[in-house]
Amino acid sequence: MVDADEVARLCYERFHSLPRRGKPEAGREWSLLAAVLKLRRGDQTGPAELEVVSMGTGTKCVGRTAMSPSGDVLNDSHAEVIARRGGVRYLTQQLLGAVSGRGSSVFAPAEQRGKWKLQPGISFIFFTSHTPCGDASIIPMADNLSQPCVIVPSVRSSEGGGGTGGAAPDGGREYKLLRLEQKPTEEPGEPPESGGLRSPAWSDPSDPLDPVPGGLPPPVPDLHRTGAKCVPGGPADPLQPGTRYHSTGALRLKPGRGEPTLSLSCSDKLARWGVLGFQGALLSHYLQEALFFSTVVVGACPYRQEVMHRALVERCSSVSDLPPGFSPRPPQLLQSRLEFPFSHNQAVLQQRGKQGRICPCGAAISWCNVADQPLDVTANGYKQGATRKCVGSPGSRSLLCKRELFHSFLSVVAATEPAALPDSLRCEEPDGGREYKLLRLEQKPTEEPGEPPESGGLRSPAWSDPSDPLDPVPGGLPPPVPDLHRTGAKCVPGGPADPLQPGTRYHSTGALRLKPGRGEPTLSLSCSDKLARWGVLGFQGALLSHYLQEALFFSTVVVGACPYRQEVMHRALVERCSSVSDLPPGFSPRPPQLLQSRLEFPFSHNQAVLQQRGKQGRICPCGAAISWCNVADQPLDVTANGYKQGATRKCVGSPGSRSLLCKRELFHSFLSVVAATEPAALPDSLRLLELQTYWDYKQASQSYQQAWQQLRSQSFPLWPRSDRNLLLFH
């Protein structure tokens, strides 16, 4: 049996342990709190372990015009939604640990290929400090506290009264506020519970109609009102006095500040999670069954068990014909006696006798149990403190917005070995082509009899021997039907497209291609395209061309042991540019000698597969990039995600976060050459010109730019042009 007070206490303690940033100001602001807790039950004799894995606060939503097609705005910042999205972030990190072999405290392999399930004894509990907005908040009014945000005034008649509608006659509104401000009472001699405030007697389910202290008569029957409006096209609120004001069971949209929102009420979302699970569509790719809350606990506040059951359970209880893994899963519904110290009621009590008004806190806090950036504080859908100028940049995004959660999911996909991908994420190929290619990849390399591996690398398997490129796969399997190794690089828009036909007709050849990104397209041309370009323009670049009489070319290109065809390398690196003419002096097509080594890189994908065979976990690409060059000062440079490895978001933009290979650093190195050159010894292209920006210096390298123009027009007309605005730095 779950102890509701213990659940509330753990959540409040987690809140108190967080930094001050984003929290309500005591006595002036209030907020709501929600959390996801993980429950681990051992054997029947051992104690259960209860842990908060995600917690959120917040009361706001953005209007429909503030929503973004880029997925970088957090549309709904109600505490329940923040807590659930933080829970998804926690589950994504746990899944990443599972697929990458680092381990997970939540997931275990399931029976279906590529699928995972909860470890035995694991379940999840949902806590909210107040009844969810929407249908669950439409409660018969028989208590001391009002709902957190009184949107619609009470409609109640009384002696000598005369109004209807929005104004409460003869002090009806004041009567509700008077009831709201009654001081909670404690049982004689019993101190408040730790972690929260003991609820007043009204929340005792055994005494729901306890009269108001002070001798006032109980109110006429009425409802707590919700500011959430019925979804257009469905049942509407009658707006009649008393208990007939609202329709019950209707879908509702949360109120916005000034304009309508498109966010469904938290009652509706909790009801949905009770059938579809709270993991969402993306994580469902990897899960054999949806994840449900076994228990929903509500803090001390106006509450009725039958109303919660109606809102969260009854509306979806008869849903049928669902696919495997989904079904209505009614949670156990409990209420705690502990009140959130920053609730609306507590803010009213603390503000009594003081000047000013109380208001909802404008910030939303998310905390989840992940190693990297567990805390996220937002306001108006963006990170708290984000200015209009930086809106749209990665630094302005909440870690819970769609875009960030999508990127986290893509990191799971990238870390999953292709053979272990769930079927829903696989690229179907006829005749088992994909599976057969994976089988060929994982064959163990063979050595010539009696010959040890060469030093410095691993001997290549027979299939990579240029003299026998179609050597049948060891183990007696028949050779594959004609097919191609696939590339993830996509054809540049506007040019030849991949036919995507079975076998050898899947790809177009000779096309310019863009490298694939993790989640969004890149503007980086493929390495084949860049090597072909360097074969005409040289690899020295535009800046060094100022000082060089001739471009610098690679005389030889050597490829390690891997799938390889000489004619394919020649087509990609040489043939496409072999007929370029009318180039300025110092530039010309210079086809390199093409060779292949028999030695394989010890950390190749193939070697990782072989070394991981028979072990748990998955292999994934290394996230870091290493650069070493033979220079005296800082020869080593290690980067990740475009910045120096270890650079935090806070220091991004500072010199210490930059790779030594970025445009800016290479430009500064070039400028040191220019500064060290005597004016009389400067090359003509650097004389008599007012050069300031990186763009200026590149364009002033006229011979290089002329050669590039000829190459582009004759061989690569679809090569994307650089965005000048990204090159105007000094």
Would you kindly provide a written description of the structure presented here, covering whatever features stand out?
The chain has 730 residues and is an alpha+beta fold. It has two domains: 4-136 and 250-415, no CATH class; 427-726, no CATH class. 23% of the residues lie in helices and 14% in strands. It is built from 16 helices and 27 strands. An eight-stranded mixed beta sheet has the order 13-12-8-2-3-16-17-18, with helices on both faces. A hairpin with a 6-residue loop joins β16 (363-368) and β17. The relative contact order is 0.11.
Please tag this protein with its features.
alpha+beta, elongated, 730 residues, 8-stranded mixed sheet, 16 helices, single chain, 14% strand, 3-stranded antiparallel sheet
Task: Put the structure in a nutshell.
This protein has 730 residues and is of the alpha+beta class. Residues 143-194, 199-214, 428-456 and 458-480 have low confidence and may be disordered.
Strand order of the largest sheet: 13-12-8-2-3-16-17-18
Shape: elongated
Number of E-type strands: 27
Number of alpha- plus pi-helical segments: 16
Terminus-to-terminus distance: 66 Å
Mean pLDDT: 82
Question: How many strands, which pairing sense, and closed or not: the largest β-sheet?
Answer: 8 strands, mixed
Overall number of structural domains: 2
In percent, how much strand structure appears in the residues? 5-15%
Query: What is the gyration radius calculated from CA atoms?
Result: 33 Å
The low-pLDDT segments are 143-194, 199-214, 428-456, 458-480
Q: Could you estimate the helical fraction of the residues in percent?
A: 10-25%
